[in-house]
TrEMBL record:
Protein name as it appears in the record: Adenosine deaminase
PANTHER family: ADENOSINE DEAMINASE
Leading EC class: hydrolase
Similarity comment text for this entry: Belongs to the metallo-dependent hydrolases superfamily. Adenosine and AMP deaminases family. Adenosine deaminase subfamily.
CDD domains linked to this entry: ADA
Keyword terms, alphabetized: Hydrolase, Metal-binding, Nucleotide metabolism, Zinc
SUPFAM superfamilies, per the entry: Metallo-dependent hydrolases
Cofactor binding: number and manner: Binds 1 zinc ion per subunit.
The protein's required cofactors: Zn(2+)
Length: 331
């Protein structure tokens, strides 16, 4: 199968992990921002995680350089536009982009201005390319729980007009769900959909709690339900879709070898999976590449591809009109 030509859907892609290295240099020059180098190869080295990355925390260090640049309206709008453009060029027809707005307020932007700027970039790209995008607002588990309320309140006015869901991300510790139960419950009451990073770093129990306590509709990664039967059974019972990211999971040591990746076994056992990049730049991949990796290593078929595509439509937080359009791409 020529995955580049096939229509694709991406449900788990981080904005700040998908910035073009050339854009970092260009914006640093235009905005007079000091960065460690202006050499494109050196910048790539700082932004791309090594294949022998030791842990999730080491992987997350690759977000520091984009964080220096993504602090003004123009830069945020441009970076969102370029991510949509890059996705469109490999025939991604729908994408949900996630980012943590509070990481982009260091130079005076309000949380609302940050969100508005990214939405503007997405909508600009939609007017040019055959792609639809929506935003997922990530709250940081490494920040005080109270900061989640600011993100949720500021994003509320953009619900169903660019913003569709809330997320919890960053380093994963045990039993984080109880701590964030109140803000996520509030978000749900406003109409936010809920997806949660869980089960990425060896704690399958976190997936169980994210579904039970936070009412997660999707799980980011979820690899370690393979070692937690009650989480595995709950995911299958509730039809929770896993947003799986093969290359990223290999880099962060969720798995040691790609041959160990449980996506096919989950899929064959009736668990709904989607295939995603996580971070296009940090993992140095695109979605076409991710599908090639999975289908070449696990001998999956065209029917498997169609089923994953349909799963991704149904699990998306898109409106019904968009979902109908996405279904038509493979009829």
């Amino acid at each position: 199968m020529d995955f580049k030509k096939l229509p694709k859907i991406e449900l788990h892609c981080h904005l700040d992990g998908s910035v073009r290295p050339s854009t970092i240099i260009d914006l640093a020059n235009k905005k007079n921002i000091e960065i460690p180098s202006k050499n494109i190869e050196e910048i790539k080295d700082m932004m791309v995680a090594p294949k022998d990355c030791k842990s999730l925390d080491e992987y997350l260090k690759r977000f520091e350089l984009p964080g220096l640049i993504m602090q003004d309206k123009e830069s945020l709008e441009r970076i969102a536009f370029e991510l949509m453009e890059d996705a469109s060029k490999e025939n991604i027809v729908y994408i949900e982009i996630r980012f943590a707005p509070l990481l982009h307020t260091n130079k005076g932007l309000t949380t609302k201005e940050v969100i508005e700027s990214v939405i503007r970039g997405i909508k600009n790209a939609e007017s040019i390319y055959d792609i639809k995008g929506n935003l997922i607002l990530s709250c940081m588990r490494t920040m005080d729980v109270e900061t989640s309320y600011e993100v949720i309140e500021c994003g509320r006015e953009f619900l169903n007009n660019g913003v569709v869901a809330v997320d919890l991300c960053s380093s994963e510790n045990e039993k984080f769900s109880e701590k964030f139960e109140a803000p996520i419950s509030l978000a749900r009451s406003y109409g936010y959909r809920v997806t949660i990073h869980a089960g990425e770093t060896g704690i399958g129990e976190n997936v169980y709690e994210a579904i039970k306590v936070l009412k997660a509709e999707r799980i980011g990664h979820g690899v370690f339900i393979k070692d937690c039967k009650k989480a595995y059974d709950l995911v299958r019972e509730k039809n929770i879709t896993l947003e799986m990211c093969p290359t990223s999971n290999l880099q962060t040591k969720a798995i040691k070898l790609i041959e160990d990746y449980p996506l096919k076994s989950f899929h064959k056992d009736g668990i709904k999976v989607s295939v995603n990049t996580d971070n296009r730049t940090v993992s140095n991949i695109d979605l076409t590449n991710e599908y090639d990796i999975i289908f070449n290593n696990f001998e999956m078929s065209e029917n498997d591809y169609k089923q994953i595509y349909i799963n991704s439509i149904e699990a998306s937080f898109a409106d019904e009109e968009t979902k109908d359009k996405l279904r038509n791409y493979i009829k």
